[in-house]
Amino acid sequence: MACVLCKTPEATSYVVAPRDEAVLLCDTCRAGLETGPQDAPRWQCLNEAIWSTEPAEQVLAFRLLKQMDAAWARDLLDIAYLDPEVLSWAEAGLPDQNAVVHRDCNGTVLQNGDTVTLIKALPVKGAGFTAKQGTAVRKISLEPDNADHISGRVEGQRIVILTKFVKRA
Questions:
Q1: 156 partner at 20 to 30 Å CA-CA among 3, 20, 37, 102?
Q2: Are 139 and 115 within 8 A, CB to CB?
Q3: In CATH, what number does 116-168 get?
Q4: Which residues make up the CATH 2.30.30 domain(s) of the chain?
Q5: For the range 50-56, what are the long-range contacts, defined as Cβ-Cβ under 8 Å and sequence gap of 24 or more?
Q6: Model confidence over 31-55: pLDDT tens digits?
């Protein structure tokens, strides 16, 4: 069976939340939905998917297009028509625009419990030591009100680290 969005032959089942309707997606389309799509020629397949007669395909195409910052994606969303019920389903699964998003130095989204690596040596104020470059910080916590701060344990001390000095492991 093929991916419903890009027609890649190898696809696995994917549940389109908040409903329990499942479709087949390839790994690349699944990653685009989970981490956000990057503007690339491969996403031109959404030109067909948004006009599908299957509501679940329309929902996935809408969500991907909505997250893209490309002129062609905005133009396609402007002319696309989704039934009100399908539109509300599609919008229910979009990430909250007001939510604080923590990103590492490479732009990868961080989540509570992730492991990150320091990309530079950082002097720890008040603790009297320097956290060395390459140190792994496991089970980080995200600061809910500041996208630039995470916290984690380094050498037994709980410290606050700026996200621009870490990369996700």
A1: 102
A2: yes
A3: 2.30.30
A4: 116-168
A5: 50/76, 50/77, 50/80, 51/80, 52/4, 54/4, 54/23, 55/21, 55/83, 55/85, 55/86, 55/89, 56/4, 56/16, 56/19, 56/21, 56/22, 56/23
A6: 888 888 877 788 999 999 999 999 9
